[in-house]
Specification:
The chain is built from 5 helices and 8 strands; from the N terminus they run ααββαααββββββ. With 232 residues, the protein is of the alpha+beta class. It has 2 domains: 46 residues; 183 residues, Alpha-Beta Complex (endopeptidase fold (from Nostoc punctiforme)), CATH 3.90.1720.10. The strands form 2 sheets. A 6-stranded antiparallel β-sheet has the order 3-8-4-5-6-7. Strands 1-2 form a two-stranded parallel sheet.
Amino acid sequence: MLKKTCRNHANLTSRRFCSILLYCVLTICCVPVIYGQSDNNSSSDNRTEQEIFTEKLVAAAIERTAHLVVYDGSYRKIAYPGGDVPANVGVCTDEIVRIYRALGIDLQKEVHEDMRKNFAIYPKNWGLKSPDTNIDHRRVPNLQTFFTRRGEKLGVSSDAGDYLPGNLVTWMLPGNLPHIGIVTDRRSEDGLRPLMVHNIGGGPVLEDMLFTYKITGHYCYPAKPARSSHSE
């Protein structure tokens, strides 16, 4: 009986020792891995707010290419703020408005508020005597004026490297038709140019057309925050 009790005690002690040994091994082996994963996650979150915003803006632009949109620039009465023409119709400016709205920025509202206070600064191409929330944000020249005033006007060049993801580009099409699109992080087949999301008549598409037409404007909106001397 005593021998049996001793054997049981020895077996119990052995099992406890094995459990402790296993815990130590797992702790030694796994802790560095866990900490390593944490380090990787923290390093991936070191992006600036501007970088995160740009990624979301580009993603919203590319998402628009999944929508079927009939090109139709007809004047329509729409709600304000947050108004839009029917989802299955639109022009180049409507795509820009929809892209920004996906990130919570209502260009209809922002353009109107700026025009209401500074109407004399905006183009007089259409004979209007006061702002119109139904159409103002749907006109390229108005967006150009707004982005120049409230965003950042960038240089126009023939260097594709100057056009960064999230930048806005305007062109003049044949027939003196203004056009607008947005730069993405996708590249042309030869890798030399960024692809653009725009609607030139066949709905929103992702296309290699940055230098196809005469560029009339290059913008960033919102403007990039100024770098302080402490960050350098």
